[in-house]
Amino acid sequence: MKILDQNGLSGLVNGLLHLILLGGAVIFVSLPWSVKWYMNVLPYESSENYAFLLAFFAITGLFALTIVYELIRIFRTLNRHDPFQWDNVHSLRKIAVASFLIAAGYIVKMIFFNSFLTVILVMVFVIAGFFSIILAEVFRQAVIVKEENDLTI
Cα–Cα distance between 152 and 27 in angstroms, integer? Predict the structure, then answer.
């Protein structure tokens, strides 16, 4: 099975990312109704938490959609067999920033709605942020080497 090709594994992942982006956009648009539904399902009733949860999910959801969009951009270059370009370095840096901002949002959420899952999500997004920074630097160095190699006769 091919790994890096539109018909290979990266093409499959790219298709799944498009579905996730579409589903995430639908969820993002439906947040006012879905958060209200969620508040009705909770065992306690508090309308003051609605505004916080709506803002929290909207902000972190926007950053999550940004991550998915940037991953789609990276997979587009992978499928073209040309991954070492500056756009991917910038995409990985944007993913790192979005991951850290999501982690910060979940830290704020822990003040109001703390749970074990919230703590785990903070750790996951912090690790994802650091991983993206490191990967961006690897790609940056690879782009520099590639550009030098392209200039060699």
Answer: 50
Give the distance, in angstroms, between the CA of residue 48 and the centroid of all CA atoms in the same chain.
29
How many other CB atoms are there within 10 angstroms of residue 130's CB atom?
Answer: 13
pLDDT band at 6 (very low <50, low <70, confident <90, very high): confident
| All residues at 6 or more sequence positions from 120 whose CB lies less than 8 Å from its CB, including other chains | none
Q: How is 63-119 classified by DSSP, letter by letter?
A: HHHHHHHHHHHHHHHHHTT---SHHHHHHHHHHHHHHHHHHHHHHHHHHHS--HHHH
Q: List Cα–Cα distances, 10 to 3, 51, 83, 120, in angstroms.
A: 6, 39, 12, 28
Model pLDDT, residue 5: 79
The whole-number pLDDT of residue 38 equals: 84
What element of type H or E holds 47?
none
Among 148, 59, 41, 44, CA closest to 102: 59
Structure tokens of 123?
Answer: 């750790």
